[in-house]
Design a protein that fits this description.
Layout lengths: L2 H18 L2 H14 L4 H11 L2 H12 L4 H11 L2 H9 L8 H10 L2 H11 L5 H28 L10 H16 L3 H16 L7 H24 L2
């Protein structure tokens, strides 16, 4: 572990620490929902480690509980995670000079919070060891918090009063992450189009309106990025 890597690791951790508090209610809600869907603790934590994507987990759990066909569950999870294509394309330059194994690990650990925290400095700092540390600081801390508090949610299912409205707290945590990302025009366009479609199509069966909204938002984001590129000299 080089000194530059350690410097980046600590700086990334400090930058992300205030935002990471929002992961706690979100992870608790995910754990509670998995237990409510009938998962055993082993099944719930297995899904939590392998999938490691709260939106995909929460989006597919009602389908799993309802006995929805597997193909629709897989498509739903895939579509719910499509935003990571945009995130990956946007942050890819920050991994130039980083070993292949570390890039694979970083891809699995990519989250909304890590992306929002790391994007600017990942694209501007010249040292690849520092950049990798700066990315892994928030990412590994997110992974640890997510596993810990999802496990707490699984084990506390039935004990946490519904009046605590943890679902609402998780939504607030997502909004906190959305605001800094929306400063970039393509991200703002994607959020507005996707949010508008989700509201307009909320009556579609099997939550298919969410899938259409995600695809529409991603397409709008790519279009905005393309138009922005054409406008640049």
């Amino acid at each position: 572990m080089s000194p530059r890597f350690r410097d980046g690791l600590l700086e990334g951790f400090r930058a992300f620490l205030p935002l990471s508090v929002g992961l706690i209610p979100w992870a608790l809600v995910t754990g509670l929902t998995m237990a409510g869907a009938g998962f055993t603790p082993l099944q719930a934590m297995g899904m939590n480690v392998i999938v490691f994507a709260g939106t995909a987990q929460l989006g597919t759990l009602p389908l799993i509980a309802a006995g929805t066909p597997v193909w629709l569950i897989v498509i739903t999870a895939f579509v719910l995670n499509l935003r990571f294509i945009i995130f990956s394309a946007a942050i890819a330059r920050g991994f130039h000079g980083v070993p292949l194994g570390a890039r694979w690990l970083s891809g699995h650990l990519l989250t909304d919070g890590a992306f929002a925290t790391c994007l600017e400095k990942m694209l501007s700092h010249p040292d690849p060891h520092w950049r990798l540390g700066y990315y892994l600081g928030p990412s590994l801390w997110s992974w640890l918090l997510w596993q810990l508090f999802a496990f707490c949610g699984v084990m506390a299912a039935g004990s946490i009063p519904r009046g605590w409205s943890l679902e609402f707290m998780a939504t607030i945590a997502l909004i906190v992450l959305l605001v800094p990302m929306a400063r970039v025009r393509p991200m703002l366009v994607a959020a507005l189009v996707g949010g508008g479609l989700a509201v307009a199509l909320r009556g579609m069966p099997l939550r298919l309106g969410v899938i259409v909204a995600i695809v529409g938002g991603i397409a709008a984001g790519f279009a905005a990025e393309s138009w922005r590129g054409k406008d640049l000299p």
